[in-house]
Target: CO or xanthine dehydrogenase, Mo-binding subunit
Amino acid sequence: MTLTPAELTSAVSGGIGTSPQRPDGNLKVRGEFAYASDLWHEDMIWGATLRSPHPYARITSVDITEALKVPGVYAVLTHSDVPGRNLYGLEHKDQPVLAVDVVRYQGEPIALVGADHPETALRAMKKIVVTYDVLEPVVDMETAADDTPLHPGGNLVRHVPIRRGSQDITADVVVTGRYEVGMQDQAFLGPESGLAVPATDGSIDLYIATQWLHVDRDQIAAALGLPQEQVRLTLSGVGGAFGGREDLSMQVHACLLALHTGKPVKMVYNREESFYGHVHRHPAVLYYEHGADHTGKLVYIRTRMYLDGGAYASSTPAVVANAATLGVGPYEVDNVTIDAYGLYTNNPPCGAMRGFGAVQAGFAYESQMDKLAEALGMSPVDVRIRNAMTEGSVMPTGQVVDSAAPVAQLLKLVQDKPMPAGTSSDIRELPGGVSNTTHGEGVIRGVGYAVGIKNICFSEGYDDYSTARVRVSMVNGSLAAAVHTAACEVGQGLVTIMQQIVRTELGIERVTVLPMDTTIGNGGSTSASRQTYVTGGAVKAACALVRSRLDGRTDIGDEVIDETTEWRHRATEALDPVTGQGNAHVQYGFAAHRAVVDVDVDLGLVRVVSLDCAQDVGKALNPQAVVGQIQGGSAQGLGLAVMEEIQTSGGKVRNPSFTDYLIPTVLDMPPMSIDVLELADPHAPYGIRGVGEPPTISSTPAIVAAIRAATGLALTRVPVRPEHLTGT
Model:
């Protein structure tokens, strides 16, 4: 029997456009899913890391003698035990696997212990004696470029200038502002963890929670002095990521201990160590000047941005480029002057986090649009619509937006949503909740709007691709398919999307997602809202090759049809180093929010009453997952608006725990009315547009705008704290 591909697809459920159950869903709900912290191996030992208590110091000596004497200790390693290159990094190889003669941030790894029990490893770690010559840390991002150089070449990681149109034009109405964004943590719930298993031939297998298997492998192999083929990585269960697992944490450390001892080594960070063990969102200081005519039309935007990269570069160069290229927001403006700087300091290293530079810029430019509206006597929505980008608009980089840009439509959708009911008399629905701080007295309501823009996929000429293998065989008399990639499932639902694509393309309902590992080609990072686009594109392309060989057959006997392919999106290009011009990005995503808040102006407490959103996703391959991404991104934006900040003093972290670093809970998240637009991008597989990051960008400024509307305060810094509202 033969069927056409269309007939095959129509007979199968769970394809694109539907919301099938996740293959790992039941296990996760029942608490039976195996995360990386659950890994176990016979005869394994435990690893621990000794970290610097100082943000900046010279190491004058390290004595491991007493640590080696602790019963149950198998190894104590320092930088001299790193057999390969003792430097790694995503863009610059500037971060040591283990510190040599200087530490540049509090928490920098200095030594490793391998022992028969985690408590034994900790006891031994405390017996390592390190002497320091403590130095004055560099902590101010605005002056860091002229301060003590922390790396050869100075403290400027990258400067991105953008120049478009006139640089000295004037305008009728001018508003200026200085804005600050605090350091936000990804706050994933599964701590850094992994298991390294040595092989008899000197190679190593690492089972790890990460975002990018192949880049991890390449950096690990270089540090171990091994060929890449002798370092094999398999993805373990990942309890969230949001950018915080894009850099190495304990990967090399576990492998070093395993190869040194000949035993499997497990490492799991506790929560405090996790705060020191991964990068965070860049704190930023941003200066903006907006000029407009009397009708509200933007004439020019000028901005100077500083992003604190902390002690090592991580992805700071790309974050700075995003902040710059997206720095005017989703608005048309002919005259632009942008200077964005990423700096080294002795603060904690900062790198990728959901929104990736666009969040910092978004808070500033949306605050400016509200200030401009007030100066013009216009509504915040009207001034945005007056300047809204559309398809065919030109970015500050000169790039033409060549797919849907429904900025005005998104704003109108959130503006037209019904308002929530008035202030409640139920204390559970008031600022402060069941702490019973108010029964409505001193509570004022405010409404705020914001819209944001985010690039999708990697940029600036990066060779961004993914690899997919699709295999079809007969199982119990029916066709069954298996899909294999190295693209990391970190909770976002890629495992479901891959099944849906195979079902749609091949008309085969039974689809198995094979473990993600480095035995197949690169899948790229699970970041930049790129995996559905790029790995989805690779799976779709592999299916096309398989389908051409199936030729409509529903019975292939003992034959196995197996195809592997790489898939790339259209090329981007580097920015001009002087003018910042160039087609740097693949695609743009847009989201808008309306926030309604109640503020207790006496105590400075805020309750977000509603947080409504409209977003264009191109095509909702899995509508339920799309809504989940919008809700999750909005929750992280809410956190940055009113509670989340890693607080540092002199480079030291003051709140490395979920007791003192607050994140939104189910009680903090309000109801969300969400409109999902499907305006296809003709350049993308199925017309899709990356979903995960845009809602994080517009949710923060919308909430702060609503608090401003309630209080009349300027509020130029996030997160907004009670003392910002009460003046105490």
User: Anything to note?
Assistant: The first strand starts at residue 45 and ends at 51. The two ends are 78 Å apart (CA to CA). The chain has 16 helices and 28 strands.
